[in-house]
């Protein structure tokens, strides 16, 4: 299966309410994510579903990505992608999606980097994978297990995704 890890787009520094969970994408963040999503579509990826962290900036990013793929269902809120969830718990929660051929996850740093590290090396500290805001990494794996075995197929910064659009 292919799993695409997307870090949320550029978000406001402080939300209107002052809490981190409510931070929204900026106008620039929305515009750049629309172009990056078009780049993902142009690459030919076909996610069966999009799972998103419940935080506003990730949910907005996921909605932009889903809108770029005609026929793709609305993103599904997936609490295991929230920033405070340990990578082993995220991977365990993802096991129910092991039957999908392609899955796209929208979340945060350092969580997504740690999830990728566990899938690639077996340890959250086995690799430092820094995803810029709006970047995407593609991992090929046989299932969601907390051990080495996944293969990093590509890692594209947001600028490259936008240039593909």
Number of strand segments: 6
Q: What is the percent of helical residues?
A: 25-40%
- Tell me the β content: 15-25%
Class from helix and strand fractions: alpha/beta
Distance between the first and last residues' Cα = 24 Å
Give the SSE string: EHEHEHEHEEH
Structure description:
There is one protein chain. The protein is α/β, with parallel strands linked by helices and 165 residues long. It contains five helices and six strands. The chain has a six-stranded mixed sheet with strand order 3-2-4-1-5-6, sandwiched between helices. Helix 1 packs across helix 5. The radius of gyration is 14 Å and the shape is globular. The two termini are 24 Å apart.
Features:
165 residues, alpha/beta, 6-stranded mixed sheet
Ordered list of secondary-structure elements with their pairings:
Elements: E1 2-7, H1 27-42, E2 49-52, H2 56-67, E3 76-77, H3 87-94, E4 102-107, H4 111-121, E5 136-140, E6 151-156, H5 158-164
Parallel strand pairs: 1-4, 2-3, 2-4
Antiparallel strand pairs: 1-5, 5-6
Put the structure in a nutshell:
By secondary structure, the protein is α/β, with parallel strands linked by helices. The chain has five helices and six strands. Helix 2 links the parallel strand 2 and strand 3.
